[in-house]
From TrEMBL:
SUPFAM superfamilies: Pseudouridine synthase
InterPro entries to which the protein is assigned, alphabetical: PsdUridine_synth_cat_dom_sf, PsdUridine_synth_RsuA/RluA, RluA_PseudoU_synthase
Protein name: tRNA pseudouridine32 synthase / 23S rRNA pseudouridine746 synthase
Record lineage: Bacteria, Pseudomonadati, Thermodesulfobacteriota, Desulfovibrionia, Desulfovibrionales
Provenance organism: Desulfomicrobium apsheronum
Origin: domain of life: Bacteria
Any one GO molecular function term: pseudouridine synthase activity
A GO biological-process term: RNA processing
Domain Pseudouridine synthase RsuA/RluA-like span(s) in chain numbering: 91-226
Length: 279
């Protein structure tokens, strides 16, 4: 973290605007407080209510309420890549998430998350809800619900295994198999992945795979492929000899389900990863 990074919680002692209160308590300029608030680094706790992000600088806070500020100037300075809208329905939308964009925010910020970026692109007053996750370093299709009720309905599809997701990955090495199912547990929980070889390139010693997962453990595809000795190229966490300046070569390439609002079958896909990679 940046040397000036901090996280502090204060109990409000006198009524004032949130911005003025935090500026007085932290010594930060009001412009920096406002920037931190807009980007999701300030949280507001009131008696009898759940803690929420506080974005409006002029909001009046009262004695006994609590303000939490999480300030990281390096994080706040980040400018995220913009997502692409693939399809929009009444209750949800489908997006192509760029690498580097988060699925969900942290206590410090949410301006680099897909829901916030998508909300701005749609011009929506309501916050959007991620129904599933995709690693920050990965790219590809993600589903966002437009309200809490839609998120619950769509989330149930995932819990029931009624959503078909397919991933593409470029890995190091040439597998000696064409199709393989892996059921190696992860973090003490069952984890099942299926892999299918699309194309190998002996010149670069790389292979393009399709992956399907029946469970959703953290970094499941990346960890299973690493365990097989074929780590994903560009993975900053798993594997050796797989570094790549282009970044992680893992993409959520397709998504399909029966819409719970119309009962119509839906399917979306993004273009495949370029292969073989060109220097």
């Amino acid at each position: 973290m940046h040397a000036d990074t901090f996280s502090r919680t204060f109990t409000v002692e006198e009524a004032a605007s949130a911005c003025d209160t935090l500026a007085g308590l932290t010594g930060l300029p009001k412009a920096r407080i406002k920037d931190c608030m807009v980007k999701g680094g300030v949280w507001w706790s009131r008696p009898g209510r759940s803690t929420t992000r506080l974005r409006r600088a002029s909001t009046e806070v009262k004695p006994g309420e609590r303000l939490e500020i999480n300030y990281d100037p390096a994080l706040l300075a980040l400018v995220p890549a913009q997502p692409e809208l693939i399809a929009k329905a009444k209750h949800y939308s489908i997006w192509n998430k760029p690498a580097g964009v988060l699925s969900q925010g942290t206590r410090f910020a949410d301006h680099c998350t897909l829901p916030r970026l998508a909300q701005a692109k749609l011009g929506s007053r309501n916050e959007l809800h991620p129904v599933h996750r995709l690693d920050r370093e990965a790219r590809g299709i993600m589903l966002l619900a437009h309200d809490g009720k839609a998120a619950a309905k769509l989330g149930e599809l995932f819990r029931q295994g009624a959503v078909a997701k397919e991933y593409a990955a470029i890995v190091r090495g040439i597998p000696d198999w064409t199709d393989l199912e892996v059921d190696e547990p992860l973090d003490g929980k069952e984890a099942r992945s299926r892999f299918h070889v699309i194309q190998s390139d002996p010149a670069s010693d790389m292979t393009l795979l399709l992956a399907r997962i029946e469970t959703g453990r953290k970094h499941q595809i990346r960890r299973h492929l690493h365990g097989l000795g074929h780590p994903v190229m560009g993975d900053p966490r798993y594997g050796r000899g797989n570094k790549l300046v282009e970044g992680l070569q893992l993409m959520a390439r397709s998504l399909a389900f029966t819409c719970p609002f119309t009962n119509a079958p839906k399917q979306w896909a993004v273009p495949d990863l370029p292969f073989p990679l060109v220097d």
